[in-house]
Amino acid sequence: MGVSICFASGKGGVGKSTIVANLGIALARYKLKTVVVDGNLEGPSLGLIMGIKPNIASLHDVLSGEIGVESAMVKVDGLDVVVGELKVEGLLDINFELFERTIEDLEKKYEIVIVDCPPGLGRDAVVAISSCYEMVLVVTPEITSISEALKTIIIAKKLGTKIIGVIINKAGSKYDIPHERISDILELPILGVLPEDDEIKRALMEGKPVILLKPNSRFSREIEEVAAKLMERIYPYKPIS
Amino acid sequence: MKKILVIDDEPDIVFLIKLILEKEGYKVIEANSGSEGLELAKKEKPDLILLDVMMPDMLGWEVSKKIKADKELSKIPVAMLTVKSAAEDKLKSLEEARADWHIAKPIDREKLLSTVAWLLEAPPRRV
Fold first, then answer.
1. Interface of B with A in 72-101 (CB under 8 A)
2. What is the DSSP letter of B124?
3. How far is CA B84 from the centre of its chain?
4. Structure confidence by residue, pLDDT tens digits, B17-42
5. Considering only CB atoms, which chain A residues are within 8 Å of B111?
């Protein structure tokens, strides 16, 4: 039985999907049986970030009961990906109850299931959070992101989802809230500090995750570190090769 | 010398904060209630305000709201310094009370000093 981890933020635009896409590839490279799921039903972007062609079977098809989740799998560099439907009509037939069941199914087949949570705390976000065992918060080092993260913490506690740590993204400005202060106020360990990096924009334009396009960039190296930390949590005694 | 206003109704806490901050070269002025704190803030225009929440005349959150609504005071960084440390309390500090930060009691010397130094140097900006 694998573990499901949702990546949530409260605030949109903090870079969750970019982190999930790249982290998924890093975990798959550690030979961890990994699947990433685009849980952002209203605004999916994992497919775009990973260069997956549109108009393929998606999570929306799974949640409307049309197909099983295994039929919606796409392979990217050894990683299994379930993308979202870009057309808004795809939202009409969604059965939210199927979301939790889908994640349960994936937990039986994978060692780690990563869910890219939608921003905000609407129904889709709440369903994604409650469907996962654990959560990683993604914030940017500024005050509105911290406020939104606190709201997400309140909801996660009510839903019983364990928050294992925080990733600080788009870091590096002299105006950043100091990272230790972020860890203090959220009462969470820092799993990673990822820099603002132009290579991410370039990777998006090229439709290729930055970890594949620029494996030696600071962002990619930090993602590898986060992957190693998650790996150690899941398999504390398994050496990383 | 940077001037810090401490607003707290507990004399022992004020004494401890003064001891920590004055040793680092800060000038500390004190008020023992919300209304006294507001008056002192207007008169002294401190560089930073450390503000308790649970005070008899006015909750610190109300004091922070008044400070942030006052054109002359709104740019002074305010940190809530309180035993109320649930995520809900922190959210109330940052959103409703518009404080710049929330520090949980009991006071940790190192955390207090590094937070004070940061808030004096580059308080978080609201977009």
1. 87-88, 90-91, 94-95, 100-101
2. P
3. 14
4. 999 999 999 999 999 999 999 999 99
5. 184
Is residue A241 situated within a structural domain? no
Nearest to B95 among A147, A157, A180 (CB): A147
Residues across chain B: 127
Pair of tokens at residue A144: 């509105």
User: Cβ separation of A150 and B90 shorter than 8 Å?
Assistant: yes
**Fold of domain B3-119:** Rossmann fold (3.40.50)
List the single residue in B with minimal CA-CA distance to A173. B122
Whether this model's ipTM surpasses 0.90 comes out as yes
Could you read off the pLDDT of A58-115 as tens digits, one per residue? 999 999 899 999 999 999 999 999 999 877 776 677 888 899 999 999 999 999 999 9
**Which two structure tokens, joined as six digits, stand for B103?**
């520090």
Report DSSP letters for A174-220, one per residue.
Answer: TTSPPHHHHHHHHT--EEEEEE--HHHHHHHHHTS-HHHH-TTSHHH
Chain B residues in contact with A181 by the CB 8 A cut-off are 101, 114-115, 118
Q: How many domains does chain A have?
A: 1
Find the domain containing A18 and state its range: 3-234
Closest Cβ–Cβ partner in A146, A150, A174 for B122: A174
Q: What are phi and psi of A5, to 5 degrees?
A: -130, 120
